[in-house]
Write a structure and sequence with these properties.
four-stranded antiparallel beta sheet, single chain
Length: about 200
């Protein structure tokens, strides 16, 4: 698990404990982000207890608890799942909450607003307007960010087929992966100086 914190640009050293395990943070290219790796927490919460040193040699303590919510996606449902009525063969409250939470998280990343319900309970049945809202949210996300050439189109209503739910979650997955791929690539921008030759394949 990558842990990232943003600190003033005059900081030169960050070390301490993440969930009681000793770590040393590394400064990223932007000069303000410090990162380290930590063991995955089952609760997705991380207690930071750090010593921070600035350029003048001043030392301070930093304590915080952060929570990482990492989306995961199911888009490999098959007809066998449906026929065998296994956990992937039908949409339940857990699936709906996951899809709605992923929708909110991705929408926040790309800067659009969506309406979600993240409190589905066992036995609660979605109505037609719930399915429409879920579909429309995914359409907004797809329309407002990049996708792969192989990313499926948003399926038509009604969302009554395992292939349609695969498409819904595949779209969310692809936008999420592309978004964080773009964030990672920002660090490499500007490395080629004017006048350098770039090979052509």
């Amino acid at each position: 698990m990558d842990i990232n914190i943003v600190l003033p640009s005059n900081i030169v050293y960050v070390a301490g404990y993440v969930n009681n395990i000793a770590v040393v943070f590394q400064q990223e290219a932007d000069g303000k982000t410090w990162s380290t790796k930590a063991e995955q927490s089952a609760e997705n919460t991380y207690l930071l207890e750090l010593d921070i040193v600035d350029r003048a040699g001043n030392k301070s303590s930093y304590t915080d608890t952060i929570e990482y919510v990492l989306p995961y996606f199911i888009y490999d449902r098959t007809i066998q799942d449906v026929e065998q009525r296994n956990v992937k063969g039908y949409i339940n409250a857990t699936d709906l909450n996951r899809i709605e939470q992923n929708t909110r998280i991705i929408a926040e990343y790309i800067g659009i607003s969506v309406s979600v319900n993240e409190n589905w309970e066992i036995g609660e049945l979605p109505r037609a307007n719930d399915y429409k809202r879920i579909r429309d949210n995914v359409q907004r996300i797809r329309d407002n960010y990049m996708v792969y050439t192989g990313t499926p189109e948003v399926p038509d209503q009604p969302l009554n087929d395992y292939k349609k739910w695969n498409a819904i979650e595949r779209i969310l997955h692809d936008v999420y992966v592309i978004y964080f791929g773009n964030i990672s690539n920002v660090n490499y921008c500007g490395e080629i100086a004017a006048g350098e030759e770039i090979g052509v394949i």
